């Protein structure tokens, strides 16, 4: 006889397919969640590592900034020391100027001329004096021009004093000390950092 199956096999097959579908769906969902969690963990660890590197770089940049500030201060101190050293060298070079100037004046001033005052401002000398005659004053001017210690003499006034028995002329003479004998002292401005 023929075998007839009267059991509801189609419903059982549908139920089995439905169960397989739900299991597959749950497995895919779990795999998807695991994949997202893994990707999230990897990205989070990469972000943390990058943040750590950024923090390290910020610390190093801060250290370098302080070192740069120290270097700038040291350069300023060096510049100030160099200025002081240059000034000291100039003062050393100029310390013998006064004896040389006075020695040269003693040699070139002819008899008959006397100084009442001698003022020095930088390398400029101003002499107030008296002369027995204009010829002696002219001789003094010629000797000034030939001198290697002095330059550019300028006679600004001659006044004859006839009230005394000796006829004398008062004069005012300005001249410069040669730069080869007394270089100008260059004073650098103090203060401000550059």
From TrEMBL:
Residues 64-94 form a coiled coil. GO terms for biological process: type IV pilus assembly; type IV pilus-dependent motility. The chain crosses the membrane at residues 21-43. The keyword rRNA processing does not apply. It comes from Bowmanella dokdonensis. PANTHER family: DNA UTILIZATION PROTEIN HOFN, TYPE IV PILUS INNER MEMBRANE COMPONENT PILN. The lineage of its organism: Bacteria, Pseudomonadati, Pseudomonadota, Gammaproteobacteria, Alteromonadales. Signal peptide: none annotated. Keywords: Coiled coil, Membrane, Transmembrane, Transmembrane helix. This is PilN domain-containing protein. It comes from the Bacteria. It holds the Pfam family PilN.
């Amino acid at each position: 006889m023929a075998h007839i199956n009267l059991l509801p096999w189609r419903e059982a097959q549908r139920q089995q397919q439905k169960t397989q579908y739900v299991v597959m769906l749950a497995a895919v969902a779990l795999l998807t969640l695991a994949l997202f969690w893994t990707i999230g963990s990897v990205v989070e660890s990469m972000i943390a590592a990058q943040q750590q590197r950024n923090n390290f770089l910020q610390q190093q940049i801060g250290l370098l900034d302080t070192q740069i500030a120290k270097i700038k201060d040291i350069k300023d101190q060096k510049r100030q020391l160099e200025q002081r050293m240059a000034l000291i060298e100039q003062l050393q070079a100029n310390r013998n100027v006064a004896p040389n100037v006075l020695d040269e004046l003693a040699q070139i001033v002819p008899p008959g001329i006397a100084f009442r005052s001698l003022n020095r401002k930088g390398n400029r000398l101003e002499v107030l004096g008296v002369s027995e005659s204009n010829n002696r004053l002219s001789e003094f001017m010629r000797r000034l021009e030939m001198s290697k210690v002095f330059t550019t003499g300028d006679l600004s006034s001659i006044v004859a004093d006839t009230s005394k028995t000796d006829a004398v002329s008062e004069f005012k003479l300005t001249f410069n000390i040669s730069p080869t004998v007394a270089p100008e002292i260059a004073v650098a401005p103090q203060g401000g950092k550059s």
